[in-house]
Amino acid sequence: NKKILEIKDLSIFFDISLGTVKAVENVSFDLYEGESLGLVGESGCGKTTTALTTMGMLPDNGYIHSGEIHYEGKNLAPNTEEEWQLYRWNDIAMVFQGAMNALNPVKKISFQIAEAITLHNPNINPNDVKVKIKELFKLVGLDTSRIDNYPHEFSGGMRQRVMIAMALACDPKVLIADEPTTALDVMVQAQIIDLINSLRIKLNMSMIIITHDLSIISETCDRIAVMYAGKIVEIGSVRDIIKNSLHPYTKKLIAAFPNIYGERKMIESIPGTPPNLLDPPKGCRFHLRCSEAIELCKSIEPKLVSFGDGHFAACHLLRGDANE
Ligand code: SF4
Known about the structure:
Elements: E1 3-16, E2 19-32, E3 36-40, H1 47-54, E4 62-71, E5 74-75, H2 81-87, E6 92-95, H3 109-120, H4 126-139, H5 156-167, E7 174-178, H6 186-203, E8 206-211, H7 214-220, E9 223-228, E10 231-237, H8 238-243, H9 248-255, E11 305-306, E12 312-313
Parallel strand pairs: 3-8, 3-9, 6-7, 7-8
Antiparallel strand pairs: 1-2, 1-4, 4-5, 9-10, 10-12, 11-12
Helix pairs in contact: 3-4, 3-5, 4-5, 5-6
The chain binds iron/sulfur cluster (SF4).
């Protein structure tokens, strides 16, 4: 499959009054056509920041310190806002975390989807907009007779479908979904997961699913990138990450979600909190919380090394392929 997105050595910093927050450092990954990649990690690990950057949507105090974002071979990292507008929503779109609660309560759903459509097609005629809204409603499994309803007449799950429809309004090739099932009950979560899976197949879309919940990833993704404190610590196929995880942090994360394959056990939380990225610890960023840390971990940062078949992990206790 063709690479659609290539993130190369990306570092994203934020200037705040106390100094510079190194939110994401030296992150690299590829996304292939029709592929779904999960970005997992605790909140604050840089997964949403990475996604916002691929949309050119960093807040004013955030910036790309170094690295590249290739979309279909073109580096978007140096884009001006005008240049980003050509790609944002048209090529890469995002369903933001909690956005379903941010629908305008006094505007009909059809009006809000129409806005998303006309934003990038200002010359489209009103009849075509209506046709497109109905198409999008069908695509996300909503009843087209309800396009003129107001948000409060829709359930949480239906509103999330509206958000997905809005993200698809300009037929993007890449869809990023940030915690797409948060705040929905378990039955509805399963329906949204089914929808995401069916859209990917129907539209041959590439997807990035951001979540702290590994059970969602295991049902929607082909590969997983595990992030900790602004870095990717392990990346590989869903099977490799869940059944054969190598990095101590990934193992802890999986232990925190023991119900992936149905069995419910006590959820083990990971002791400690992620480091302050204003002043990240030297060496391995996980060393303050890692029960397996050795002396070396305090001073030398481990590099990602290959374990074959696209499985990489960064930990001093691990030895990669012989050629590393
Ligand atoms: Fe733990 Fe050291 Fe491996 Fe980091 S490098 S995960 S601190 S053992």
